[in-house]
Amino acid sequence: MTSLPRISVVVPSFNQAKYLELTLRSILGQDYPDLELIVIDGGSKDESPDIIRKYQQHMKFWCSEPDGGHPEGLIKGFSHATGEILCFLNSDDLFEPGVLREVGEYFSAHPDVDVVYGDTTWINADGKSLRRQKEIPFNRFLWIYTYNYIPGMSTFWRRGIYDRVGGITTTYRLSFDADLWIRFSDAHGKIRHIARQWSCMRFYSEQNNRRLRAQSDRDDIEIRSRYWKNHAVPKTLFLRRKVAMGMRILWRLLTGCYSLGYQRYMEKAEKA
C-alpha cells in the first residue's frame, strides 16, 4: 500500500478568537496520519494565543508576533513546512471531514498532478450554511478572461511547484492566492478539480474580501491584465471577455454548478 504524503497546513490568524478554535478542530479532527500543522498569529490582542497554546502539542510550529499581514504570515508559515503537499486555511474557515485523506490519496494516485482544488460551502458568521459554491475545472482562457474562481481554502499543491514559482509574494495583499494559481499555470503545472465540498468559507461583513472588496477586485484585474497586454485593440479584449464569460456560464449550467434558489441564497449571504 502506498503511504500517504505529509500535508502541511498553515493557518494565518489575527484577532480571530471567535472562530480560531473551530478552525483548528476542523484540521486536527481529520485524523490524517501525517499532518503537519503550523499556526502563524499576527500578534493578536484577543484570546487567540491562549487558544493556540491549548492545541500546541499538535503543532509543528506556532508563533504570535506582528508579521506585516496575511501574505507575510503565510510566507513565514510555509518556511517552516516540511510536507510534500501544502495548503492554507484561514482562521475563520473550516475543512470538511475527511478532506485531507481524500487529498492525500488523490496525490498518491496521480503523481503527475501538481495542484488540486475542490469546492466550498459558504457559511455565515454563526456557521449556518448559505449555499454550496460549485466550480468548473481550471481552464486558463476562462480564468484569465473572467475571474479567479479557484477557492483557496479548498486548494492543495505540491511543494515542488511552490518552490519552482518562488512561492507567495507580497505584491497583492488580498489576491495573493490568484497570483499564485496563475504562476502555477505559467510553470506548466497540472491543475485539476475535484467536484467535492472540501471546505467551508465564512461569508460575513468583517471578512477581508467583503470589507475590502474594491481593492480585492482591483488586484484581481491587475493580475489577469498581465495577460491582456497583447490585445492592443480594446474590441479584441472585450470580445474575449464576453466569449469567456459565456463559456463559463454554459459550462456551469451543463455541470450543475448553479443551485436552485441562487438569488435567495445571495440575499441570505448579503444579510449574514
What does this structure look like?
With 272 residues, the protein is of the alpha/beta class. The protein has one domain: Spore Coat Polysaccharide Biosynthesis Protein SpsA, Chain A (Alpha-Beta Complex), CATH 3.90.550. The chain is 41% helix and 20% strand. It is built from 11 helices and 9 strands. The chain has helices at 17-28, 48-54, 70-79, 99-109, 140-145, 159-165, 176-186, 208-211, 213-225, 234-254, 262-271; strands at residues 7-13, 35-41, 61-64, 85-88, 94-95, 115-123, 129-133, 155-158, 191-202. Strands 1, 2, 3, 4, 5, 6, 7, 8 and 9 form a 9-stranded mixed β-sheet that branches. A hairpin with a 5-residue loop joins strand 6 and strand 7. The protein is globular and about 55 Å long. The chain starts with 6 loop residues before the first strand and ends with a helix.
Number of strands: 9
Radius of gyration: 18 Å
The averaged pLDDT comes out at 91
Instruction: Report how far apart the termini are.
Output: 46 Å
Number of domains: 1
- Please report the first level of CATH classification, the CATH class: Alpha Beta
CATH architecture assignment name: Alpha-Beta Complex
Order of helices and strands: EHEHEHEEHEEHEHHEHHHH
Task: Report the helical percentage.
Answer: 40-55%
Uncertain regions spanning at least 5 consecutive residues: 265-272
Would you tell me the structural class of the helices and strands?
alpha/beta
As a percent range, the share of strand residues is: 15-25%
**Could you say what the CATH topology is called?**
Spore Coat Polysaccharide Biosynthesis Protein SpsA, Chain A
CATH level 4 superfamily: Spore Coat Polysaccharide Biosynthesis Protein SpsA, Chain A
> Tell me, what's the shape?
globular
